[in-house]
Amino acid sequence: MENNPLENYKAVYLTAEDLRVAASIIYNAYHDDPFFLEVFGREDNSVYEQKLRAAIREELNTLWQQDQPLIGLFDGERLIGVACVITQQIPIGQSRYWHWRLKMVLGTGWKSTQGLMEKETCLLSHLPSEKCGILQFIALTPTEQKKGNGAKLVEAVLSWCDEQPNLEGMGVFVNHPKHHKVFSNQGFKSLAHVTIGQVKGEILFYAK
């Protein structure tokens, strides 16, 4: 899978060797995300950062092991963006595997793990069918933001989605106006305004 072949950018599936860099990109992008600040706690910054790293590491490993699509945007040989999709071909939300729950509890605590599952359950409840994916993470390195690369990464995800015969579309939870604009410009439509925990946001959906 490639994107924008006339430029120096390419969108391809990540390899196992890319996961460490991917985790770092996601961590930096989501460090100040209101949902994670709510779920992992704002009181102790060092504890918060430890939980966030653990959650991202465990989720990436799980998605990799379950053959879920991990898409990387490269500038030449340099990984500059990551998009992680999870489909309902594996249990998510309150149906998460027990070993995922155990590892996530050990890394983030029971309350935080419940919060992560609550977010997925909320998303699932608003999607039009079980044949829909969820955009779990989407992130760019700080130096590559505000250059149109976010749109390139979303386009790569939607290109992948369009090629999947068993998928009807893609959902995502957004809580920032800037992110809402990027997705809306790529054809995502609003399904619902929701509050997860104390965080208000919107569920957007791309229909094939």
Automatic annotation (TrEMBL):
InterPro entries on file: Acyl_CoA_acyltransferase (IPR016181), GNAT_dom (IPR000182)
Keywords: Acyltransferase, Transferase
Any GO molecular function: acyltransferase activity
Record-annotated N-acetyltransferase domain positions: 65-188
Record-listed E.C. numbers: 2.3.1.-
UniProt keyword annotation of Transferase present: yes
Protein name (database record): GNAT family N-acetyltransferase
Organism: Shewanella subflava
